Amino acid sequence: MKRFLLAALAAAAGAGCSPARAADDPAALLRAADRWRLADEDVQVETRVQVLGADGGVEKERLYTVFVQAGHRSLVLMRSPAEAGQRVLMLGDDFWLLMPGSQRPLRITPLQKLLGAASTGDIATLSWAQDYAGTLVGEEQCDGAPCRHLQLQAVRPGVSYQRMELWLGKARSEPLRAELYVQSDKLAKRARFVMDRADAPTQVAEMVLTDELSHGRQTHVRYLSRRPKRVPEAWLNPMFLARNPGVE
């Protein structure tokens, strides 16, 4: 009985102070930010990537089906005619490119370019809480509204960016913008996150990437749809994919 009472008191005390702790806990803030980008552990995301020219017109466009699965696993199917039959598989820190007509998966890095400023890691990984350790820098103003500034350091070698500066809305912890740094600690890209609705947002609809290493050109990564989807385990094997090019 005494153990039960002690446990109940501890739980009540924790519940009473958890909101305040969560507001300043970088790990909790990252988990909250992730929910705006990825609502389920196993999900299918239809994605459109567009490269814009100096006049704002679309220069290039590609379509991708991305299966994001629990345990740092993702499969990207390339849908556009120019890339037909190509697939990218991510398992933890390992990335493979599978080309049509070849039965040998090619090792690549998460910074392998897909189109414009968008790399394989930009569309295959959607979790910050699992990939980074965060430090809360403090509160700032973002476009006239209060926001929180976090510094993120990678905890796994296979992530695209070793360091990030991330700004989240203070009230809802939605991602607003980020600065993305590569291994050499050089600023590679800036990201801006566009919500689905300005008045009552429910999820991130688009990520706009500005390539700081290539004259500031913009690439728009648009999430056309998301739905829960768990793929067969066999699809997450590079040799199976190489032998079965018809995986859809």
UniProtKB/TrEMBL annotation:
<protein>
    <submittedName>
        <fullName>Outer membrane lipoprotein-sorting protein</fullName>
    </submittedName>
</protein>
<feature type="domain" description="Uncharacterized protein TP-0789">
    <location>
        <begin position="72"/>
        <end position="241"/>
    </location>
</feature>
<keyword id="KW-0732">Signal</keyword>
<dbReference type="InterPro" id="IPR011220">
    <property type="entry name" value="UCP028205"/>
</dbReference>
<dbReference type="InterPro" id="IPR033399">
    <property type="entry name" value="TP_0789-like"/>
</dbReference>
<keyword id="KW-0449">Lipoprotein</keyword>
<feature type="signal peptide">
    <location>
        <begin position="1"/>
        <end position="22"/>
    </location>
</feature>
<dbReference type="Pfam" id="PF17131">
    <property type="entry name" value="LolA_like"/>
</dbReference>
